[in-house]
Structure formats: C-alpha cells, structure tokens
C-alpha cells in the first residue's frame, strides 16, 4: 500500500494516517537512466500510468510560482496570504491576491507538456490503458489541455467554497465580483483596496449569501480524505509513474513517487534539476518539461494504430 503523508506542508491528518504503514526502508537505486529508448520500452508495456505534476509544468506557460527568489505579491510571500488566519484577518487582501492570480491564469495557455499528457490519455484509453494526472497545481491547465482523469490535490483557482453553508462550485467570472474589478495589482507600492466584506464574493445559494473563499488547500490545512484515498488507489495500482515539474519537497506529494519506486515500479522524473528524490528513480530526464515530455509520451511503435 502506498504510504500517504497526509499533510499539507507538514500537518498530519491523524485520522487517515492511522491505517497506513510506513515502510522501514525506501528503495535506493543507482544514478537514474536518461535512456529515452529504454523508457519508451517501459512506457509501451504500462497499463496504468500515474503522472504527478507540479509547478514546473505551469511555469513553462508563464504562470507565477510564488516560490523562491522574487516569489512575492506586493510585499508578501504566498505563505503569508494563503492561510485561514490571513483570510480571517484580511479577506479583502487575500481576495485581491487570488483575483490577481485568476486574472493572470485567464491569459495563459497549456504548453506542450500539458498537451502531450492530454493526448497520451486520449490515445491510451482507446487501447484499454489508464492515465491519471495527480497534480499539485491549482490553475486547471491540465483540464484546459484536454486531460479528463485528473486529481487536483490542492483544489482550483476557479472554484469557490462558502464559509457559511460549505457549498463548493466552479466559478469562472472575470472579475469574480464587481468590487474586485481592476484590483489586485502586484506592485509593492500598491495600497490594499480594503474592500468591505459585504462586497467580496458571496454565496449564491438560496437564503445563504455567505462569504466565499477560494476552494484551494491553504498552508496549515489538511488535504481532503476523498482525494487522498483516490490518489492512493491510483498509486497502488500503477505500473509506471511519471514525476513532471515538481520539486519533490511539498508534502504529501513529495512521498508519492518514492513510495511507488520502493515497491519496484519504474518511476521517471522530468525536471529542470535534480530533486531530493531523484536517486530513488529509474529514469531522469533533465530539461524543460515541454521539451522532454512530448517525445517520451508520443505513440510507440508497439502501440496499435
């Protein structure tokens, strides 16, 4: 069984953690291979493929990552805004931040890595094979590229959840509410809009009108048990795992691929640099995902036409 570190950036969900066992050792491997032909042979035989994706995939579409140097909105790091406490203290500021991110995403398009994954899923499903994308990204670029079998671990920028009734819904309004129109500029000299809470996005369920929040997993929040269980099922049954554009430092996703590798399943990493998990994997392909991934996932000569 795959061991899920049921955390969002380090917080353990003890209810789910109780029935999972942590392996005593992880499988250590020699330096990963960069032999594309060898990977392609493995790929041609796989029946259930899990693809784990992170911010590096979206970064190639020009999506801000808010990690590392320069990862600021105004004078704040994302970790200072993407918390329940920040929203409770200043929902106007937090909504400005997420409004900015939503509006930026509406100008971005899926890149060749997103498209290669979507094409691979569409092609392989016709052959009776499965491809599941398990993503840490909240930008929906996989969905826009055409992927259908997606698990969004951290939610979506384009979904909202009511703080009063809990109703969750897709929301693609631009702007999300009138008071946010023209707001959210990232320049550090920009003053907070200080929008009254009554004018922030509100629930449209009959008789509710509660305050909406982005339906994303914030720092300090645990991931949903349902999506973690579904991810566990996919990872337990996969016979090939791809790790694409992720730093392998954000939990629980950082543990997914190493634990797949620990049971002897081939894992291929596609990333701009080595990660803390690289040495556990069978394959590593260095470079932009939009360059390395398409030739890896294109139709193999052994596939039926």
Protein described:
The protein is built from 11 helices and 11 strands. By secondary structure, the chain is α/β, with parallel strands linked by helices. The chain folds into 2 domains: 155 residues, 3-Layer(aba) Sandwich (Rossmann fold); 106 residues, SIR2/SIRT2 'Small Domain' (2-Layer Sandwich). It comes from Notothenia coriiceps. Its cofactor is Zn(2+).
Please report which band the strand proportion falls in: under 5%, 5-15%, 15-25%, 25-35%, 35-45% or over 45%. Answer: 15-25%
Label the CATH architecture of the largest domain: 3-Layer(aba) Sandwich
Topology pattern, helix = H, strand = E:
HHEHEEHHHHEHEEEEHEHEEH
CATH names the topology of the largest domain as Rossmann fold
Q: Regions with pLDDT < 50 over 5+ consecutive residues?
A: 2-28
Number of domains: 2
What would you report as the Rg, rounded to the nearest angstrom?
20 Å
| Structural class designation | alpha/beta
The separation of the N and C termini measures: 35 Å
Protein topology:
Elements: H1 14-17, H2 36-45, E1 48-53, H3 55-59, E2 72-73, E3 76-77, H4 78-81, H5 84-89, H6 91-105, H7 112-125, E4 130-135, H8 141-145, E5 150-152, E6 155-162, E7 168-170, E8 212-216, H9 225-237, E9 240-244, H10 253-262, E10 267-271, E11 283-286, H11 289-297
Parallel strand pairs: 1-4, 1-9, 4-5, 9-10, 10-11
Antiparallel strand pairs: 2-3, 6-7, 6-8
Helix pairs in contact: 7-11
